[in-house]
């Protein structure tokens, strides 16, 4: 009986030591969950309407961190707006502070503007020329477009293949004025707008400054293209 009691007390003592040892180390599942929640809130804030997938890479279970006696605090470390490889710093600011960097694979699928058919250089785009195709944003080309309205009315700077993603640099403002066109020249003088007829001496796109001949004064001036057949003289 004495041996049995001694054995029982010995087992309880060992178990007690194991429990104490276990309690002093931080469980890693709350660390991963903190990183997951932080990434979800961050990317849902950026893209509330898009499909979001986050896979947190679990920390090595051999890692020993002192158990945190305060709430874990996440913060930015390396986050790309387009997703892909991301890293969150999870911190303990308690009696035994530590930081752990948790990596994750983030996929954001969003509708990106693509050409619906072959488009030649210089084509002025309409809604029928464009289609939205859902792709992972980290695989979309730099300068991609999310709205058709960003492309409609623009001209292609180069030829495009069917289902090719459009980039901002693939487009250019349309040619609104051709050399020799009669144009309306507007100038704001002292709060009054003065209008005069003119002739374009070169082609012009929206926002460009081009040479104009003022037909009233027969002077050559430079004016900014603001609409089809209309220019403004900067004052």
Structure notes:
It is a single chain. Mean pLDDT is 89; it is low at 2-21. Helix content is 17%, strand content 38%. Strands 1, 2, 3, 4 and 5 form a five-stranded antiparallel beta sheet that branches. A five-stranded mixed β-barrel has the order 9-10-12-13-14. With 235 residues, it is an alpha+beta fold. The chain has three domains: 24-108, no CATH class; 110-172, Antifreeze-like/N-acetylneuraminic acid synthase C-terminal domain (Type Iii Antifreeze Protein Isoform Hplc 12, Alpha-Beta Complex); 175-233, SH3 type barrels.
The parts where pLDDT drops under 50 for at least 5 residues are 2-21
Average pLDDT: 89
Q: Give the DSSP E fraction (strand runs of 2 or more residues).
A: 35-45%
How many domains? The number is: 3
Based on Cα principal axes, name the global outline: elongated
Structural class: alpha+beta
Helix content: 10-25%
Count of DSSP helices? 2
| N/C terminus separation | 108 Å
Number of strands: 14
SSE order in H/E notation? HHEEEEEEEEEEEEEE
- Based on CA atoms alone, the radius of gyration comes out at 32 Å
* Biggest sheet details: 5 strands, antiparallel
Domain SAF: 110-172
Keywords: Bacterial flagellum biogenesis, Cell projection, Cilium, Flagellum, Periplasm, Signal
Family: Belongs to the FlgA family.
Signal peptide: 1-21
Tags for this model:
SH3 type barrels; five-stranded mixed barrel; five-stranded antiparallel sheet; elongated; Type Iii Antifreeze Protein Isoform Hplc 12; alpha+beta; 2 helices; 235 residues; 3 domains; 14 strands; disordered N terminus
